[in-house]
Amino acid sequence: MTDRVLAIDGGNSKTAVALVDVDGRVLAQVRGPGASPQHLGVARSLEVFDRLVREVAGRAGVAGGGVIATHTAAYLAGADLPEEERELRAAVEAQGWSGTSAVGNDTFALLRAGTADGIGVAVVCGAGINCVAVAPDGRTHRFPALGHISGDWGGGGHLGSEALWLAVRAEDGRGEPTALLDAVVAHYGTATVAEAVRRLHLGEVEFDPNALCPVLFEVAAGGDAVARSVVDRLVEEVVLLARVSLTRLELLAEPVDVVLGGGVLTGTGGVVVDAVAARLGAVAPVARVRVVDVPPVVGAALLGLDAVGASPGAESRLRAAYESEVRVG
């Protein structure tokens, strides 16, 4: 069997699976729904992953009933604690997709996607927020990333909920005036925010706080001080995550990459990224802040290629395939 790597990027909102050969050629790729074990449970998540894996094998012309790759590199949202990683790795190995497997948090795939060697810091802000770091000597630093109970602040859902909270208080007098009031009313198509809250409470409208996140950034871009304060708080949090990680690994004075990813950070242009670079530069002057320019599944595939000892040319070939896809898309 030609050496192949099965790469899985399992996020909260979507899953990407790719099958690549040891030379970095993409044999097939598929995308599917999010299947975080925290939301669906391990068994249901593996059902989703297995369906996508068998689909990608079929598209690549590989017999789909047994081993389809030399190595599986699965980097998943919800693999936050060591015991969760162990459970997920055992579940992945039980699927029989490959001879060897590695399972880790999806933020490590983001870090590898944004660097040449997987060294540095990665901060992701999508549905949630997380940060991991890897030093040149292999030491790692990470946060539990379990939400509010583990000290997290940020993520699309959190920011969207904050926008609604501020709009409610602006309307009922407990908060400061803000253009978020009119923006949230327009978003829900109601006469008042109070009416939107009533409908949300009664289940007449589904509450998707992530959908309010773009509203927050749009209002902030218009100069609203209240909305802008939330965006500034996000910048502060991203810088804090990166700074703490760099400090713990003694990398503040080293020229390492700080990779930013996730829909919230990549979807705001330079509003957050430029501010993060400026503030982080004050404490880590030679750190290189950059936004990842290929999908995280590329990072999962690269970690897999690293594991099987692929040649350096495999990385450039794989990146070129996805960079072309990004340009066309």
UniProtKB/TrEMBL annotation:
<dbReference type="Pfam" id="PF01869">
    <property type="entry name" value="BcrAD_BadFG"/>
</dbReference>
<dbReference type="InterPro" id="IPR052519">
    <property type="entry name" value="Euk-type_GlcNAc_Kinase"/>
</dbReference>
<protein>
    <submittedName>
        <fullName>N-acetylglucosamine kinase-like BadF-type ATPase</fullName>
    </submittedName>
</protein>
<keyword id="KW-0418">Kinase</keyword>
<dbReference type="InterPro" id="IPR043129">
    <property type="entry name" value="ATPase_NBD"/>
</dbReference>
<feature type="domain" description="ATPase BadF/BadG/BcrA/BcrD type">
    <location>
        <begin position="8"/>
        <end position="304"/>
    </location>
</feature>
<keyword id="KW-0808">Transferase</keyword>
<dbReference type="GO" id="GO:0016301">
    <property type="term" value="F:kinase activity"/>
</dbReference>
<dbReference type="InterPro" id="IPR002731">
    <property type="entry name" value="ATPase_BadF"/>
</dbReference>
